[in-house]
Amino acid sequence: MDNGVRARFRLCVAIGYVSTMSNPLDVFRDGALAGHVAVITGGGTGICKGIAAAYARFGCDVCITSRKQDVLDATAAELKAATGKDVLAVAADVRDPDAVVRVVEAARARFGKVDTLVNGAAGNFLAPAVALSPNAFKTVVEIDLIGSFHAVRAVFPSLRDAGDGLIINITATLHYHGTPLQLHASAAKAGVDAMTRNLAVEWGGAGVRVVSIAPGPIGDTEGMRRLAPGDAAKKAKQAVPLGRFGEVDEIAAAAVYLRSAAAAYITGAVLVVDGGNSVMGAMMSLT
Ligand code: COA
Ligand code: NAP
Q1: What is the predicted pLDDT for the residue at 281?
Q2: pLDDT band at 19; cut points 50, 70, 90
Q3: Residue 107 to residue 111: CA distance in whole angstroms
């Protein structure tokens, strides 16, 4: 594609986007998630803060957790002001299985049950494989994969008891191809997608659905600040067929949908929300 054609193509995509732009969460009705109780790891910031906000907005009781109590408290206060819901904020490192059990117990004590887990806690940085120390690789796998295991393990009895249980694992699309500088995170997220499929099979009979949401590049997030700093963001955008980064609310909308009755027959699936980024051919992004 020559530069002129490319520019016109991008302009059409941009005009199409602006002309249809509205908040993706506005399609859901008030009270759509009333009666549900969710524990959301990584819920103090970024994408999972957006999921926590959307869940609270639609009536779900929410417990957010991550390592930093001050960040969690600020987010809980913000969500209370926005939605009127009391959001429980309990600090824990997902690498500590006992701490994660305490989070689930606290949520159950406060809200009477837990029927939903969103596994969003993660750590990442750009590093060539050759420069990864054993501890660097292990740290990311311990947060993303083993931390997610700690959370599903801690929450399973509550999900089974509550009925209509749901686990949403926030993964990525890094491992669909060889992604440079991302060996650690790709390995971890591939493991989490494997966990989604295995648990969907093992826990379906207990009334627990298990799904992944795989975001593509989402604007104004820590993930993108780390993975596409400065000029790299412009290049990253060119690899998205829809011509833009996604928005936090577009991931939140997927999470609301998956928690709703409309998704009651969906389990074991990975919902890719990436503007087509992961299906774009390499030659297209080079032209
Ligand atoms: N390149 C290579 N190695 C790195 C690195 C980088 N940019 N950043 C950290 N590491 C290595 C450290 O050197 C250390 O290895 P070593 O002991 O062999 O030196 C190992 O990773 C652990 O680092 P540490 O800082 O002790 O880990 P932590 O548990 O305090 O923090 C991180 C975890 C590193 C993932 C940190 O970036 C974090 O807390 N991230 C959370 C937020 C985030 O990543 N958001 C984006 C989500 S997509
Ligand atoms: P983020 O704001 O940095 O979210 C990560 C969260 O995890 C933070 O709230 C962090 O809080 C928490 N966390 C990190 N280590 C933890 C630990 N050991 N124990 C408990 N909590 C921990 O980044 P984000 O970009 O929004 O990413 C959110 C999720 O989306 C991640 O799973 C990420 O892999 C995925 N994702 C993001 C993108 C993107 O474009 N941003 C793309 C694909 C996938 P504390 O520091 O307080 O612990």
Answers
A1: 84
A2: very low
A3: 6
Is residue 101 assigned to a domain?
yes
Q: Which of 130, 139, 225 to mutate to test the pocket of ligand 1 (most atoms within 8 A of CB)?
A: 139
**18 in a domain, yes or no?**
no
CATH number, domain at 112? 3.40.50.720
Ligand 2 centroid to Cα of residue 65, in Å, is 11
Task: Give the number of residues written for the chain.
Answer: 287
Query: Of the bound ligands, which one is closest to the alpha carbon of residue 250?
Result: 2
pLDDT digits (tens, 9 = 90+) for 152-206: 999 999 999 999 999 999 999 999 999 999 999 999 999 999 999 999 999 999 9
Beta bridge partners of 225: none
Is residue 279 domain-resident? no
pTM of the model: 0.95
Cα dihedral 272/41/143/221 (nearest 10) = 60
| 156 falls within a domain | yes
CB-defined site of ligand 1, < 6 Å? 122-125, 127, 131, 133, 135-136, 139-140, 222-223, 226
* Of residues 26, 94, 87, the one with CA closest to residue 53: 87
